[in-house]
Each structure stands twice: as structure tokens, then as C-alpha cells.
């Protein structure tokens, strides 16, 4: 940093020169009038250029011992900025650093006063426009380009309009000024319209006198022996004429270096292309603090430009996420960010964000001194658009229909609808990419393209102006209809992974296509076909609300729906309603109708798919025997398919039903194969139901293991189930894994693990709008509170959960929670209400036969009867519980029943009978000896002895 404390020196910045000793400020050689305090501030800040000077330090230096407030400092700072022309020219020399102070941010040059008297200028900088007072987020680019330029002599900075190519080029040029001993020449081709004038324009910029019609020989002769940096700016519109000339002069002038800016490369020998990317933007992620957001250059630029017009602006934590959103939506394009920042003074940050989707944002004006094509976004884009040949401009208009990334195949489908043949469209897309009007989007499987949002808005307006919007929208919708239909066909039957999951990045385009087809200008027939093709796409992505909306709209047009499409739509409707609105009669109707159509079409794969859906519905409403019946029907279908994978899935259906009915030995037998997981093995493609069959089978296995007296293996299976569900990234599957494995930890008495999973379930179900799952989580939290002694809190949670579950007919859990609620009421000495609650739960099971939790309900009823001094009835209930537990092979329930009966007999003086009942049961356990029930059982036996 130069010694700026020499009062005899002259400080130059931009068009200004400051003479501290003479207390004189000049602009372009003309003295400026500036108040004494404002001049003192300028001199002091220039002495400390690049440093942030604290406001208090500044006040003390300028006013010495006079007591003044910050308002006086702000007044003189404003006067200084006005004198420097910031409002009119956009240069920013004095920067406010919120919460800290002020900084002089412009590059400085110092010369001795004798060499730089007032009235003279520094000639070495005349050929270069002034650089930005402060460049944000481009230091790395400037350094890399400078290195490339020293190594390769010809570098082109390529990028879309408004991204900052000229600013970066000027920063490089100023940085190389000393290296080239002042021989840096800037040539702006922006205003040039005649390609034949290119050589003369370069010659004139170099200060050469042209005395012939062909200036090229003289130009080459002049450059051959001059070590010069030639900066060629805005070359895209004359690139056909400029490219061969640039190649020749670089070849024939060995000491010449060329730095060019263009929206496309020259494609010449020796050229090195540096592609300038948008400024980094904050990611779309919750929880980012203001400091996190301001760490990104796009946000820094936005805030910096706001502060230029609002000198005391300071970003708040509340507005910081809006700034991040604005920068993302503007794709990190510097010009777009600067134009948006210029609106904050009028609309505020929230208002500016709300206007971004408006076409008027394309017309926001920037600096008056900016070149015309940079004064609005529309002007910047028009500059590129007007240079395109017909095929490329038409292709660009067509591509504006895409929302987010798209493939080459999708782009060709749209381009060809505008009368462009495929080969021509491929070439057009390649050229648009090279001209920075299309960007590539990273993808794991294959290359994706995208239009920057500002380009898309501009091209979309042109599409409407040309009367092509309807034709392009139809081609777009038809492409995605066919695309999703093809994936559905390939995924029918078996799969090794989710058929639609690899194509999730097409979601925005599918949504846009559906929106158009069902709009007033749309095509309903295409919409019905697209909704049918997209139904399983939405289900596999767990977008259940959207699935319900689109399938319902499609089914409203019955005249346009054939049997197969209706089968698909009814199935999707049933699944989406079941998981978002509950187990209504409409769910059963949708599945039944779809299954009827599958049988009429003799489609065995769809029959099995629908039997699985109906199986889920019946388990959720508590009809476990009905669910077993669908499994039996599935066996018949699987035999016809003669497919081991289908047979395996049916066995899991049967195993789950047996577990819920109470046949735990069969449940473990049928579901045991789920623990043997081969990632490469194929599974029936029924993940579109939202559940993964294997995870549901693992859930039943884990619970069946505890019920059958194997606690340690149950815990192992439960943890494995949750881990496997996490890998699938399916919200419904993870939800069901959490719900059912939580009970394994509650049963063994591992309340810490149960609490962790319960809180996770509540959060997970809220984030994914899984209403019934959330209610289950609340009920399980209530049950845990009871176990820990918070009786009132537990009862409140259980009642709240029950109300929601009954309203949504999610009855698979209602008896479990009723049992816990009865225990809580009994603990509050409300025996009558407790007995009424447990009797209602037992009666509910009577509608469908036995249930896995019937032995436990009978045991809880017996404990309530004991509390009510009715031991004889209690013993009868306990004997029934024990008999049913043995029939169900449910040793876990049997142990609990035996402990309750042993206590009854102990009080009645029948210690021998109690010991004879309980001791053999405890002896049968070979694992889980430290679990809560076994510890309690050992305690009873010890007391009996």
C-alpha cells in the first residue's frame, strides 16, 4: 500500500485528483468546490484507504475536541458523496460498513506534486475506463484470467449478458498495467454496427493515424514490436469479422496479448476460454443466519448496491432470507442483482422479491451512465436475441416453456414443433449454449440444460408475441406424457430401484404441463393422459396432495378416460386420499373399482399391486382378517405370475396380516426372509403405494420377535428396520418404520430410545404433512409420559391423538391407545371410566375377530377390576388373556399376564401356584434378561421365595 501520509503528494482515483497540501480536489482537471469538513473527511479516509475507519475516530479527527453527534458526520459524508458524483455516475468511493464505520474503497495512484501539477492528467490511464470501486466475488476469476493471459496471450471471457465480463476484464487490465508499462488499450465494440470497420476501430483506439482504405497492414506493423495488452470488449455481434483478425494479429505480433469479452467464444487457434459463471448464491436451506447469507458474493453485491442509494442501510435477520431468495431467483447474475437492489429504495426488500416474477422486472432501469444494453435486463437480452439467426431465436423461444432442467430429447420435441428439423435444432441448441443463452445443469445420469430465469422470462414474452405459446405448450405436455408413460411400462412388474426416482428433476416440468392442459387454453384430452402417466410418478415421489388433485381433475372428464387410464387414476386416487385424508369409504371404492378394471383387463401385475393397496387400507381400518383375505387372493395371482419375487411379496403381506391378527409364529415365519436383503435383488414394483413391502415385513418381524419371547433379536431387527427405511428416502416408509418399531423399545423398557424415535416421528410427519402419522406420534408420546409417571400429561396426549385418529378412521392404533388411556385413568383412580374405556376397545375388536393386542387388553382390564375390588372377575380375565397369549404364541403378553395373576394369587395366599405359573415362563427366556418385564418377573419370584 503506498504511503498516503505524504501531504506533498497527489492522490489520483478515477477522474479525480486530490492535493492534500493545497486542499484542492479536481475532476478531469477542473477544481471542485467542497466544504472544509467534507474535504477533511476525504483526506483522512484517503490516508487510510482500504481500511474501515470507526465513526468515533473519524469524528474525533475532524472535529477534534468539539462535541458533535453522528448526524453531523452523516451530513458531511452525504455532501462528499454528492461532490464525487455518486448519485449520477454510480461510482462509489466512500463506503458505509454497517455497524463499523466508513472506508475509502477506490484504487489510488500517488505521484509527487512536482510531477502532477493541477491542470495535468495521468496519460497512462486514458485508454482504460475506471474499474469498479469495489468488485465483489471475482478476485479468484481476476487472478486466474491474469495467469492464463500471461501463459497463452489470447484469453476470452465468455458468459451471458450482465454477468460482469467487462468489469472483470477491466480489473485484469488495471492489474496488468504495470506489467505492460502502461501499454494497455481498451476497445469497446458495443456501439459498432459495421463489421468492416473493426480494423479501423482497433487502430483508432491504439492512436494510429489511418491513411488508407485498408488499415490492417499498418495495424499489424504497429503491433509487431509493441508489448501491448489489447482489451476487446463486447465482441459477440461482430465476432465473425473479428475472429480471423484476432487470430492473425496474435500470430503475427508475438509480444501482443489479447483479452476479449463475448457471449460466445472466438473459436480460433490459440484462444483460451474462461467461462465466467454467476456469483455464488446462498443455498435454499432452512436455518441460514444473516452471517451465513452474507458470506456469499451475490448477497454481498445486493446489500452493497442497496447501501449506495440508502447510505445508512443495514440488513436485518428478518430480511436476510429474502435477500438469499432474490439472489437465487436472479441466478447470481450481477446486472440483475444490481437492478433489483436499485428497486429496494422504492419497494423495500419484501416488495422487490414479490415483483421478481413480474415481467416489469425486465424493464427495471439501472445507472443512467450505463451503456444502453445494460440499462435494463430486457435490453441486455435483446442485444443477444437480435443477433440470433431464425432457427436459433425460434429454438430459444420454444425452450422458454421448460421450468428448470431439461434434456436434449425434450428440447428437440419442442423445437421440432416450430418447424425446425431435428439436425438443425441440435445445431441451434449447441450454438445457444456456446452463446451463453443456455446453461448446463449438473445431473448424475445425463447432461441437463436450463435457461436462466431472466432469459426464460424474456424468451417467454417473445414466444407469446410470435403466437407460438399454445403450440409449444402442447408439444411440451405431449412429450412428458409419452416420457412418463414409457417409464411406467418399463417399471411394470419388477424393478431393482424406484422406476421414477431417477427422473425427479423433471417434476417442475410435469407440474407446468399439467397446469397448462387443465387451463382454459389447454387440451383436456392430453391432460387426462398426462395425469394418468404422472400418477405413479407423484406417488413414488410421495407428493400425495398433488397426486390427489391431478387424478381427481382427470377423473372428472369421464368421456376422455379409457379403462386402463381409469384403473391407474382410481388406484392413485385411493392411495393419495388414504395417506392425506384418512381411511374414508372413498378409498375402498377407488381400490375396488381399480381392482375390478385390472381383472377385466387381465393385468396380473396390476391386480397384485391393487391387492397390496387394499391390504394396507384394511390393516389401517383394523380389518385384519380382511387383510389376510387379500393376501390369500394375492397368492393365487402370484401363482399365475409364476414369479418368485411376487411370491415373496405376497408372503410378506400374509406375514403382516398374521402378526396383526395375533398369529405370531406365522408372522415370524413369513416375514423372516425380509432380514436377508440383497440390494441387487428385484422387488415387485409397488413402491408407488408409498410403502416398501420389505420394510413393512421387517416391522412385523421385529414386533413378532418380542411378542414371541426374543427381546434382543427384536431390538436388533427394529434398529435394522429404521436404518433400512432411512436408505430408501421415502417419507411414508420411514414413518411406518418409526411408528411400529417404537413399540419394541416401549415394551423392553428402553424409554430413552423410544423418546428419541417418537420425537423424530412427530417432526417427520409434520414436515411431510402426514396427518395420521403425526397423531400416532402424539399418542405414543402420551404413552411414554404415562410410563414415566406424568399421568395427566399422558392422558391429555392420548385423548388428543384418539380424536384425530377416529376422525380419519385410522383404527389400527385406536385399541392400543385406548389400552394405554385406560391404564392412565386407573392410575388417577378413575376406575369406572378406565373400565368403560377398555371395554369399548375390546368390543371394537369384536367387529373383526382377534387382534395382536387382545391379550394385553384383557390383562389391563383385569388390573382395573382388581383395583375395583373384583378379584374373581379379574382372575377370569387373566385366565382368558393367558389362554389367548398361548394360542397366539405371544410369550411377551403371556409373561405380563402371568405376572398380574401371580400378584393376585400372592395376595390370596397361593404363593406356590403363583411360583409354578411364573417360574417356567421366566426360565424359557434365553435373552433380554435385563428388559423391564423380566426384571419385574424376577422381582415377583424373589418375593414369592
Question: What are its keywords?
Answer:
single chain; five-stranded parallel β-sheet; 17 strands; alpha/beta; five-stranded antiparallel β-sheet; elongated; about 950 residues
Characterise this structure.
With about 950 residues, this protein is α/β, with parallel strands linked by helices. It has 42 helices and 17 strands. The strands form 5 sheets. A 5-stranded antiparallel β-sheet has the order 4-3-2-1-8, covered by helices on one side. A 5-stranded parallel β-sheet has the order 10-11-12-9-13, with helices on both faces. Strands 5-7-6 form a 3-stranded antiparallel β-sheet. α9 (about 240-250) links the parallel β11 and β12. The protein is elongated, with a radius of gyration of 38 Å.
Rg, alpha carbons: 38 Å
Uncertain ranges = 87-91, 113-126, 358-375, 493-497, 678-687
Mean pLDDT: 84
What is the SS-derived class?
alpha/beta
Q: Which bin fits the share of residues in helices?
A: 55-70%
Strand order of the largest sheet: 4-3-2-1-8
Report how far the terminal alpha carbons are from each other.
Answer: 91 Å
Query: What's the story with the biggest beta sheet?
Result: 5 strands, antiparallel
Work out the number of β strands.
17
Q: Beta-strand percentage?
A: 5-15%
DSSP summary: helix tally: 42
> What is the overall shape?
elongated
Write the layout of secondary structure elements.
Layout: E1 9-13, E2 16-19, E3 24-27, E4 30-32, H1 36-47, E5 52-54, H2 55-63, H3 70-83, H4 86-89, E6 94-97, E7 101-104, E8 109-112, H5 139-152, E9 154-158, H6 165-175, E10 184-188, H7 198-205, H8 216-224, E11 229-233, H9 239-252, E12 257-262, E13 272-275, H10 290-294, H11 297-309, H12 320-329, H13 334-341, H14 344-355, H15 377-385, H16 390-399, H17 408-416, H18 422-434, E14 439-441, E15 448-450, H19 453-465, H20 469-491, E16 494-495, H21 507-517, H22 524-540, H23 544-555, H24 563-580, H25 585-600, H26 604-620, H27 624-641, H28 644-661, H29 664-671, E17 683-684, H30 693-707, H31 711-728, H32 731-748, H33 751-767, H34 771-787, H35 791-807, H36 814-827, H37 831-845, H38 854-867, H39 871-887, H40 891-907, H41 911-924, H42 932-944
Parallel strand pairs: 9-12, 9-13, 10-11, 11-12
Antiparallel strand pairs: 1-2, 1-8, 2-3, 3-4, 5-7, 6-7, 14-15, 16-17
Amino acid at each position: 500500500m503506498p504511503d498516503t501520509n505524504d501531504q506533498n503528494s497527489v492522490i489520483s482515483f478515477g477522474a479525480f485528483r486530490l492535493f492534500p497540501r493545497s486542499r484542492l480536489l479536481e475532476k478531469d482537471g477542473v477544481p471542485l468546490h467542497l466544504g472544509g469538513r467534507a474535504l477533511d473527511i476525504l483526506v483522512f479516509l484517503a490516508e487510510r484507504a482500504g481500511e474501515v475507519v470507526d465513526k468515533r475516530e473519524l469524528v474525533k479527527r475532524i472535529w477534534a475536541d468539539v462535541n458533535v453527534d453522528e448526524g453531523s458526520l452523516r451530513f458531511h459524508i452525504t455532501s462528499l458523496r454528492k461532490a464525487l458524483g455518486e448519485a449520477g455516475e454510480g461510482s462509489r468511493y466512500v463506503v458505509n460498513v454497517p455497524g463499523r464505520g466508513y472506508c475509502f474503497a477506490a484504487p489510488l495512484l500517488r505521484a509527487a506534486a512536482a510531477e502532477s501539477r493541477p491542470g495535468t492528467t495521468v496519460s497512462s490511464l486514458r485508454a482504460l475506463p475506471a474499474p469498479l470501486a469495489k468488485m465483489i466475488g471475482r478476485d479468484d476469476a481476476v487472478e486466474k484470467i491474469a495467469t492464463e493471459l500471461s501463459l497463452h496471450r489470447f484469453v476470452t471471457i465468455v458468459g451471458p449478458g450482465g454477468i460482469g465480463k467487462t468489469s472483470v476484464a477491466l480489473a485484469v487490465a488495471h492489474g496488468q498495467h504495470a506489467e505492460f508499462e502502461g501499454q494497455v488499450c481498451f476497445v469497446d465494440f458495443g456501439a459498432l454496427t459495421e463489421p468492416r470497420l473493426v480494423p479501423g476501430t482497433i487502430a483508432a483506439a491504439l492512436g494510429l493515424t489511418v491513411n488508407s482504405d485498408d488499415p490492417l497492414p499498418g495495424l499489424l506493423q504497429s503491433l509487431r514490436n509493441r508489448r501491448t495488452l489489447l482489451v476487446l470488449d463486447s465482441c459477440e455481434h461482430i465476432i465473425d469479422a473479428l475472429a480471423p483478425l484476432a487470430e492473425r494479429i496474435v500470430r503475427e505480433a508475438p509480444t501482443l496479448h489479447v483479452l476479449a469479452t463475448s457471449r460466445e467464444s472466438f473459436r480460433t487457434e490459440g484462444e483460451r476460454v474462461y467461462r465466467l459463471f454467476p456469483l455464488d448464491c446462498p443455498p435454499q436451506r432452512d436455518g441460514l443466519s444473516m452471517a451465513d447469507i452474507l458470506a456469499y458474493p451475490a448477497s454481498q453485491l445486493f446489500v452493497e448496491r442497496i447501501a449506495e442509494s440508502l447510505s445508512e442501510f443495514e440488513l436485518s435477520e428478518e430480511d436476510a432470507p429474502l435477500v438469499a431468495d432474490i439472489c437465487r431467483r436472479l441466478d447470481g447474475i450481477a446486472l440483475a442483482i444490481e437492478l433489483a437492489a436499485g428497486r429496494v429504495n422504492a419497494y423495500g426488500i419484501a416488495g422487490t422479491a414479490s415483483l421478481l416474477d413480474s415481467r416489469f422486472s425486465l424493464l427495471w432501469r439501472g445507472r443512467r451512465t450505463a451503456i444502453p444494453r445494460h440499462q435494463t435486463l430486457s435490453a441486455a437480452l435483446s442485444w443477444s436475441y437480435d443477433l440470433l439467426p431464425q432457427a436459433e431465436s425460434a429454438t430459444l423461444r420454444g425452450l422458454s416453456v421448460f421450468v428448470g432442467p431439461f434434456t436434449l430429447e425434450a428440447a428437440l420435441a419442442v423445437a421440432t414443433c416450430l418447424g425446425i428439423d431435428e439436425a438443425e435444432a441440435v445445431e441451434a441448441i449447441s450454438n445457444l449454449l456456446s452463446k451463453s443463452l443456455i446453461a448446463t445443469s449438473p445431473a448424475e445420469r445425463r447432461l441437463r440444460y436450463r435457461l436462466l430465469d431472466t432469459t426464460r422470462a424474456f424468451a417467454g414474452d417473445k414466444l407469446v408475441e410470435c403466437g407460438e405459446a399454445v403450440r409449444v405448450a402442447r408439444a411440451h405436455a405431449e412429450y412428458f406424457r409419452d416420457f412418463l408413460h414409457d417409464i411406467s411400462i418399463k417399471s411394470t412388474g419388477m424393478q431393482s430401484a424406484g422406476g421414477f426416482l431417477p427422473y425427479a428433476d423433471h417434476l417442475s416440468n410435469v407440474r407446468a404441463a399439467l397446469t397448462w392442459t387443465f387451463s382454459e387454453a389447454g387440451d383436456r384430452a392430453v391432460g387426462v393422459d398426462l395425469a394418468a402417466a404422472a400418477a405413479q410418478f407423484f406417488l413414488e415421489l410421495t407428493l400425495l396432495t398433488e397426486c390427489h388433485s391431478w387424478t381427481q381433475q382427470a377423473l372428472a372428464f369421464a368421456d376422455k378416460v379409457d379403462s386402463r387410464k381409469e384403473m391407474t387414476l382410481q388406484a392413485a386416487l385411493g392411495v393419495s386420499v388414504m395417506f392425506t385424508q384418512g381411511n374414508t369409504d372413498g378409498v375402498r371404492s377407488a381400490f375396488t373399482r381399480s381392482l375390478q378394471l385390472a381383472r377385466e383387463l387381465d393385468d396380473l401385475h396390476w391386480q397384485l399391486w391393487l391387492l397390496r393397496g387394499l391390504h394396507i387400507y384394511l390393516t389401517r381400518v383394523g380389518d385384519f382378517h380382511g387383510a389376510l383375505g387379500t393376501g390369500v387372493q394375492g397368492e393365487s395371482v402370484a401363482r399365475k405370475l409364476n414369479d418368485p419375487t411376487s411370491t415373496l411379496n405376497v408372503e410378506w403381506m400374509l406375514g403382516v396380516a398374521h402378526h396383526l391378527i395375533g398369529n405370531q409364529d406365522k408372522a415370524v415365519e413369513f416375514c423372516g426372509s425380509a432380514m436377508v436383503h440383497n440390494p441387487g435383488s428385484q422387488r415387485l414394483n409397488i413402491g408407488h403405494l408409498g410403502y416398501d413391502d420389505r420394510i413393512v415385513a421387517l416391522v412385523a418381524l421385529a414386533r413378532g420377535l418380542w411378542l414371541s419371547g426374543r427381546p434382543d433379536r427384536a431390538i436388533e431387527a427394529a434398529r435394522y428396520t429404521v436404518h433400512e427405511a432411512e436408505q430408501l428416502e421415502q417419507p411414508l416408509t420411514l414413518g411406518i418404520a418409526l411408528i411400529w418399531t417404537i413399540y419394541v423399545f416401549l415394551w423392553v423398557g428402553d424409554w430413552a430410545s423410544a423418546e428419541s424415535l417418537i420425537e423424530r416421528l412427530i417432526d417427520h410427519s409434520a414436515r411431510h404433512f402426514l396427518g395420521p402419522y403425526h397423531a400416532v406420534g402424539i399418542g405414543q408420546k402420551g404413552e411414554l409420559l404415562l410410563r414415566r409417571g406424568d399421568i395427566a400429561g399422558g392422558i391429555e396426549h392420548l385423548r388428543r391423538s384418539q380424536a384425530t385418529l377416529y376422525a380419519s378412521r385410522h383404527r389400527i392404533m385406536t385399541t392400543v391407545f385406548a389400552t394405554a388411556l385406560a391404564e392412565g385413568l386407573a392410575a388417577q383412580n378413575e376406575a369406572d371410566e378406565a373400565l368403560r374405556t377398555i371395554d369399548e376397545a375390546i368390543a371394537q375388536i369384536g367387529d373383526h375377530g382377534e387382534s395382536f393386542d387382545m391379550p394385553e387388553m384383557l390383562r389391563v382390564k383385569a388390573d382395573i377390576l382388581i383395583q375395583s375390588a373384583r378379584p374373581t372377575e379379574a382372575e377370569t380375565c387373566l385366565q382368558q388373556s393367558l389362554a389367548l397369549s398361548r394360542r397366539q404364541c405371544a410369550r411377551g403378553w403371556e409373561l405380563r399376564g402371568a405376572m398380574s395373576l401371580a400378584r393376585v394369587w400372592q395376595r390370596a395366599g397361593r404363593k406356590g401356584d403363583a411360583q409354578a405359573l411364573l417360574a417356567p415362563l421366566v426360565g424359557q427366556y434365553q435373552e433380554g434378561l435385563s428388559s423391564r418385564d423380566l426384571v419385574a418377573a424376577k422381582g415377583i419370584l424373589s418375593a414369592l421365595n
